[in-house]
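Sorry to interrupt, but I need a hand with the structure work. Could you write out one complete protein record for me, on any chain you like? Could you add the entry underneath, on a fresh line?
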Amino acid sequence: QVQLVESGGGLVQAGGSLRLSCAASGRTFTTYVMGWFRRALGKEREFVAAINWSGGSTRYVNSVKGRFTISRDNAKNTVSLQMNSLKPEDTAVYYCAAGSYWLPSTSWDYWGQGTQVTVSS
């Protein structure tokens, strides 16, 4: 069982930066692929980024490539999402997830409660 708690959301102007963090409970953090998803108002949940067990492999949705960076600290059981050059279309609730198997076959087994990111124009 893994519990995930996100933090770091907020209101920022377009062009600004935010750093989201996700703290995971449990001693098996290193066995999980970690990911970030988002859901904008009235839209489906969207994959944003993922990182493998060691942190050596990452994947991003095309719309955030070059602006967002996912990272993990296995010693601290945390995964982060550094978001730069934010755009109004990045406004959404962001969710941290833990899963088994690497992309594209990941089974996302655990989810956080979400943190709101709002980017004003």
Notes: The chain has a mean pLDDT of 96. The first strand starts at residue 4 and ends at 7. The radius of gyration is 13 Å.
